Amino acid sequence: MDLTALLLSRLQFAFTISFHIIFPSFTIGLAMWLTVLEALHLATGRPAYRVVFEFWLKIFGVAFGLGVVSGIVMAFQFGTNWSEMARMSGPIQGVLLSYETFTAFFLEASFFGILLFGRSRVAPWFYLFSTAMVALGTTFSAFWILANNSWMQVPIGYVVENGTFVPDDWFKILFSPVLWVRFPHMLLASYITGAFCVAATGAWYLLRGIFATEARIMLGMGLYLAAVLVPIQLFFGHLVGDYVHDYQPVKFAAIEARWHAEQPAGEVLLALPDPATETNHYEIKIPILGSLIGSMSFDSKEVGLTDFPVQDRPPVTIPFFAFRIMVGCGLLMLLLAWAGSYLSAKNRIERNRLVLWSIFLSFPLPFIAILTGWFTAEVGRQPWTVYGVLRTADAMTPFLTTRAAAISLVVFCAVYSFIFAFGVFYIYRLLRGGPAGQLITPSDTAIPNRPMSVVDGPVASGPHHAGAGE
């Protein structure tokens, strides 16, 4: 086995999935928010809700397209770099990923066209229904991906036949307690991502003194939603930690940088883990708290990394720091959401430019939290691809060479970087242009098989001044 090819394949998969997850995590939350906006517009008749809806629909369309394009590559890698995993786990993973296509993609594709081209062609209630169906499709997509990944984290409901994992109980696979804490955790992360991006955009417009009415809607709704969801997310994060503690104790020990078993166990807040000496340098530690977090007990014994063979331990540094960055981002978002919601309720937020700047600059926080959360989960699972039953080294394509892996890595990095640069620049242009009180009406040349034609199409006549639609 070519260990260099293995390392390059792991880097390629890490790069592509890190790039890809940015867009679904944004669009899942944004689709649900668009549904809320359309419902408010239908219920109140207030034009400003539709103005904001049409504005964010354009951004949703671009981000959705980038997510689809970047996600296509993921399936190819199973055949090119990880053929042994595809062969051994295909009867389970192939089915789960197929269900994503049948439910999520078909649902999104069927109704997304109505969102772009059908407002004037369908009844208002059906347009709202179509918006909800797109949001449901993105939710289905998250569910099937998390079902697949949760099975890799804690494989259950299968038997081994002729060297392959064959499902013998789909109920266990789809109703795994691990899945039903990880799926809400990811869904909430996406909703929070959408909320902070919307709130940050509203804060940006208020700082620039433009689009006042639309900016207040974005800022207020984004902050209020985040203020409610972030505490719930922290609770589900604790539940995810419980499953790691019970099902993947070696990962839990790596996250805690706990080298030796302790009773009671302390909690390492910060340190510099040293795998060579199996110790931590510059350690800041709180006694007993580790037992309380791990087992809700003041005197429980918590295992350490040295309780496991060296070949079964994950890297320590990445999950240790990634987890703390994730938690730090979550606490910062909680502080900003609560402080911003309080000032917004008191009608004082527009006079507090420091808070507005903090909210504007906070838009990367949910993306960083999602990425570091996935780093914690995936790097912490090593050296296993399917935890406890299939090692990553055994999952790679046996005949893959270093040259082939290097070429594909370079090509993917170049193509993805170009796509990301173009996509981010285009979204930035849309954001900088702002809603401007303009309502989209597809031009005569806009056609369903070219959704981007609606983005640059003409707009209906209407007010073009800041604060339009009040």
Question: Main traits of this protein?
Answer:
single chain; 470 residues; mainly alpha; two-stranded antiparallel ribbon; 14 helices; 8 strands; 7% strand; globular; disordered C terminus
Explain the layout of strands and helices.
Elements: H1 3-44, H2 47-80, H3 83-117, H4 124-153, E1 158-161, E2 164-167, H5 170-174, H6 179-208, H7 212-247, H8 249-256, E3 267-274, E4 279-286, H9 289-295, H10 317-345, H11 353-360, H12 364-381, E5 384-386, E6 390-391, H13 392-395, H14 402-433, E7 439-440, E8 459-460
Antiparallel strand pairs: 1-2, 3-4, 5-6, 7-8
What does this structure look like?
The chain is mainly alpha-helical. Helices cover 68% and strands 7% of the residues. It contains 14 helices and eight strands. Strands 1-2 form a two-stranded antiparallel sheet. Strand 5 and strand 6 form a beta hairpin. Helix 1 runs antiparallel to helix 12 and helix 3 packs antiparallel against helix 4.
Short structural summary:
This protein is mostly helical and 470 residues long. The chain has 14 helices and eight strands.
Quote the distance from N terminus to C terminus: 66 Å
Tally of DSSP helical segments: 14
Quaternary state of this entry equals: single chain
> What is the helix/strand order?
HHHHEEHHHHEEHHHHEEHHEE
For the report, how would you describe the main beta sheet? Answer: 2 strands, antiparallel
Global geometry: globular
Give the integer mean of the pLDDT values: 88
Helical percentage: 55-70%
Point out poorly predicted stretches: 437-442, 454-470
**Percent of residues in beta strands:** 5-15%
The total count of strands amounts to 8
